[in-house]
Amino acid sequence: MQSEPGSHATAKRGRNLVVMCFLSLFLAAALAGGAWLFFKYRQAVDANPKTVEERTIQRINEMVEAPSEKPSVVTVSDASKLTNKELANRAKNDDKLLIYTENKRIIIFRPLSDKIVDMLTIRDTSDTATPQETVTTQ
Predict the structure, then answer these.
(1) How far apart are CA 61 and CA 72, in angstroms?
(2) Residues paired with residue 106 on neighbouring β-strands, in sequence order
(3) Residues 6+ apart with CB under 8 A from 134
(4) What are the distances in angstroms from CA 105 to CA 16, 20, 40, 68, 88?
């Protein structure tokens, strides 16, 4: 018994179609997995405290001419615990304080509204003055 002339070619085409569908699905799954991993990586980088600090400093430098020194960046977690009256009146929770110790300046930045709330001067009242103890508005 002989097989029909076109049946072998049809079976081969069917197998090729199955292989191509499998490879296409595999490629789609690999691309989706890669996209998901990249998205998670970007979230981790964006949440990194150093990245947040650098972005805050960059944003402040775009808004005002800040001192050239690298500031200490502090996030206000509980404004009610701030000991300086002037600072406690202006700062709110989640504000960023950029402290320029050499230039004796503090910039209060509110990320939620993307605005500088105030710029304060640190006054030396003694040799051991700290930003929490001696701050005045400008």
Answers:
(1) 14
(2) 99, 120
(3) 84, 122, 123, 124, 125
(4) 71, 66, 37, 12, 16
Strands 105-110, 115-122: pairing is antiparallel
Q: What is the CA radius of gyration of the chain?
A: 30
- 52, 58 contact by CB (below 8 A): no
- Cα torsion 11, 13, 14, 17 to 10°: value is 160
Cα 78 to Cα 92: distance, rounded to the nearest angstrom: 8
pLDDT digits (tens, 9 = 90+) for 31-47: 999 999 999 998 888 77
Q: Residue 3: pLDDT above 70?
A: no
- Residue identified by tokens 């304080």 is 97
Q: What is the pTM of this model?
A: 0.61
Cα atoms in the Cβ-side hemisphere of radius 13 Å centred on 99? 15
